[in-house]
Amino acid sequence: MATASMQRVERENYLNKHYGVGSWLFTTDHKRIALLYLLSITFFFFIGGFFALLIRLELLTPAGDLVQADTYNKLFTMHGMVMVFFFLVPSIPAVLGNFLVPLMIGAKDLAFPKINLLSWYLYILGGVMMLHCMLTGGVDTGWTFYVPFSTAFSNTKVVEAGLAIFVVGFSSILTGLNFVVTIHRMRAPGMTWSRLPLFIWAHYATSIIQLLGTPVIAITLVLVAAERALHLGIFDPKLGGDPLLFQHLFWFYSHPAVYIMILPSMGIISEIIACFSRKRIFGYSFVAFSSIAIAVFGFLVWAHHMFVAGISVYAALVFSLLSYLVAVPSAVKVFNWTATMYKGSIHYDAPMLYAFGFLGLFTMGGLTGLFLAALGIDVHVTDTYFVIAHFHYIMVGGAVMGYLGGMHFWWPKISGRLYPEGWAKLAALTVFIGFNLTFFPQFILGYVGMPRRYYQYPPEFQVLNVLSTAGATILGVGYLLPMAYFLWSMRYGKPAPDNPWNAAGLEWKTASPPPTFNFDQEPVVTWEAYNYDELNRLPVKEETPIAR
Amino acid sequence: MPDSQLTAAHNPALLHHFAEPQQQRDAASLGMWVFLGTEIMFFGGLFCTYLVYRRGYFGDWGAASKTLDVTLGATNTAVLICSSLTVVLAVWAAQTCRRKLLLGNLLATLVLGTAFLGIKAIEYKEKFEKHHVPGASFEFNNVTIPGHPDQYVNPSHAEIFFALYFVMTGLHALHMIVGIGIFIWLTVMAWKGRFTPEYNTPVEMGGLYWHFVDIIWIYLFPLLYLIDRHP
Amino acid sequence: MFDNFPLWPQRASTMAGNVDALYIFLLIVSGLITLLIFVCVVFFAAKFRHRPGVQAEPIEGSMPLELTWSIIPMGVFLVIFFWGAVVYFQERTPPRDATEVYVVAKQWMWKLEHAEGQREINELHVPVGRDVKMIMTSQDAIHSFYVPAFRIKQDVLPGRYTVAWFRATKPGTYHLFCAEYCGTQHSGMIGSVVVMEPAQYEVWMSGGSTGPLSASGEKVFAELGCATCHRPDAQGRGPNLQGLFGKTVQLEDGRTVTADENYIRESILDPGAKVVKGFKPVMPTFQGIVSEEQLNALVAYVKSLSSARPGNAMAAGSPSPPAKASAQGRQVQ
Hints:
The complex is a heterotrimer. Chain A is about 65% helix and about 0% strand. By secondary structure, chain A is mostly helical. Chain A has one domain (about 30-545): Up-down Bundle (Cytochrome C Oxidase, Chain A). Chain A is globular, with a radius of gyration of 23 Å. By secondary structure, chain B is mainly α. Chain B has a single domain, classed as Four Helix Bundle (Hemerythrin (Met), subunit A). Helix content of chain B is about 75%, strand content about 0%. Chain B has helices at about 1-5, 20-55, 60-65, 70-95, 100-130, 155-190, 200-225. Chain B is elongated. Chain B starts with a helix and ends in a 6-residue tail after the last helix. The model of chain B is unreliable at about 1-10 (pLDDT under 50). By secondary structure, chain C is an alpha+beta fold. Chain C has helices spanning about 15-45, 65-90, 200-205, 215-225, 225-230, 260-270, 290-305; strands spanning about 100-105, 110-115, 120, 125, 130-140, 145, 150-155, 160-165, 170-180, 190-195, 250, 255-260. The interface between A and C is large, with 98 and 91 residues.
């Protein structure tokens, strides 16, 4: 349809308002910054994914025969660091959050646009430092940096990796700061807290965690770097230090960090399920407050990563109990999402398929968290592939599915184009199948006893490993597909209407793509969130995707 | 304030994405308070580490703390408290259009801040000379635990004290340097007449930051210098 | 299950069944919840698929439903928590009178020394049906002692002792893995636990022992001159170590501590940390002078000076159920 797009008269929007590299690199428009982030995090996603591919290839055979031991140790370390700090933590907030938060609340931009740009530059600086570290020798401590290995025994670039993460952590803090202030101070008239989309509630909760947690990992990495560079003894038992202190400090951030990674995704799922069930999310206030509850309780459970580390039995009891408490709000959300579909009018568009996938995979991942929180079981399965399967179910099956679902949902708004629906559905299915084949065998592997971070293993574990690797290749294809057709759509996709899904939310009341200042006139909100009963009464043009 | 509403559309300091100056002020204020919250968490990790080892190695830490110069530390505390006063006066001067007072107090804050850093430098130099800097050349001899002159002092535990001393006061000093940079910028802006009763948010926000850095020191001083001091 | 393709680990210890029971319970509960969600989603997606002319019904929510699906899961979770806690207590409370094995982990091997004196590298021979307690430390990084068939795992830390225990129930050879990443050959730090019939074990024990660990400890005690100050009469410059192990000790600074393995170890490496009341802090440190193996031997020796065998000094938690008569087939310690 090339001729059609050439003849189309384009309205002025944030994409075509200014041209030139400078207009992008010095932009303060939250939408452009979101796209800058999209490019950068996609880049790091593929780097992290490449490391994963090498890991899975090595694990095809029991012997360590693809790469050397040291190389393998660097691969899983850098896979973890890149995926956690350079992909999962920023992805949804920095891409979809940046793009949508002002639009959803009726604001012209975030509260601090220049700080938003600074945030991206800090991400890039941290990314460059990380790349440099990887290209000049890498780091092999595991993404968890445990001492005294990282301070006294590793011969790799620990300090550099730590400082790269320190820098990118500030990017995360500034994003959180921007969102909190924006949500408090920049809501359009009539946009009360109880009218906010659940996406906003989710990002608000996420931002609280980013603000309170990230500084702690920052200072912990400073201490590790100082100890390693200056031979201090803060964590070294030979000098009177305590290696467990490091673990407490590390996990105090890194546990809440997993909620940073999943909460935004839950926000997306709320939006998608509401839209494609054509009704308000069941139990709106419960879902909203459960996001806050997860953020708060998430700070109280960190030592469930340390049940066999040498903490006292009593401490372990407390943390186990609290870990069960924090599981309740997540369960409540899953039930509310499911209940939303009851007596809805369900559409099977690509975003909804990702939401279905999320429901199944997040449920499984979350339930396996119950296994890990059970002290008696954790002794056996901690530090094995069971844990790896658990967190990949949540991070990949949950967070990444949500991210992809969100990208498919808002792509028409972001780019002004529609993507080919058939390919999108195929990609969703491929990801779902590939994912399960990759990670379900790992639950079994973990329970039969395969420890994590092993590049060679006893031969009886091979069959499960081969299944997992096979799944990984399918999963990889599933991720490449959206890259391909999203890019295709930017040139050849059908132009998108303002509201292709007839969805609720202020972002759909402006053009696709939006003008630079978001709204032609400041919106005044007089309706509740998810006013689908009103929207369902409106006539919808035949060629609109939701009418399919 | 009726004036600001009338001139909202023309107020050069109003950024385009805000509807009115009050919203911009509120956003800046909330932003700074939230940022200071993150700074509390940042220092918090260090304070936690401090608490763990102070409880574990109280005697050795008492000995190590004794070697810090309490006079210099107390002087620095007084210097910072005075500087917080000059900051408050500067903010008031900006709000009430007193240009000379504003400039004077901004400069006084700079002087006091620099004095703080100077005294800190003297202290660091002294620590270096006494080989109390952690690392290969660390030495800790002939220092007794207050009240327990016969008790064995473990140099490794003292080294941990000094490691935390340098990291905590070093991080604080870094924040002071940033603060001085901010106040140089504020002074330049004040000289150019940019601050009016309607628009003095940068001074107020800079002031908040400075007060925060001051409060951190007010905790650091007793925790580091006054462990188990006896007259 | 299948030899080449195990779907379940072997059960070779008394704890394995307990752990598996809880695991199976969790599998059932999770399976049911997953099934419930799956069925609801599929059913709703099919039944309420959009049809032209049929509108979605705006339903706000339901407080009774919210309470139900908050409280019932919470109840189930508490059951799981409690059950898990009970199993954990058992896992972390070694029985009294367990045979002791001292373990020193280092990059990248396991060094084990039985209290009876046998030394092993990367292998641990034990008899069926005997309580075995491992007292473990690391020479360098953090490692973790993991035997899947026994369902036990415990991190091994430098600078202190940690403890794990098991009672093997089935003869055989079982994997021993290091489960805490520790560098290059982390995945090569693999060994085996060889569980033997008691008679076979006696045979194995009788070959190649250098005498009980406590006897080596006594030698080290003499060689390093400890006996000069730590005399059995009350006249030494250091406390009398007879009968010390397991007792509470009053310190110079007012605290009271229990004389467990970590206390003995710390007193050798950092004698100023806990000076006993009534004594001067004149003991020199042996950090760097004494190896981990010598430390283990000294600890075993000090323990042997106590007539009772308070093997539980290291365990935290309430008293465990009394161990069954584990004296069968045991040699004199």
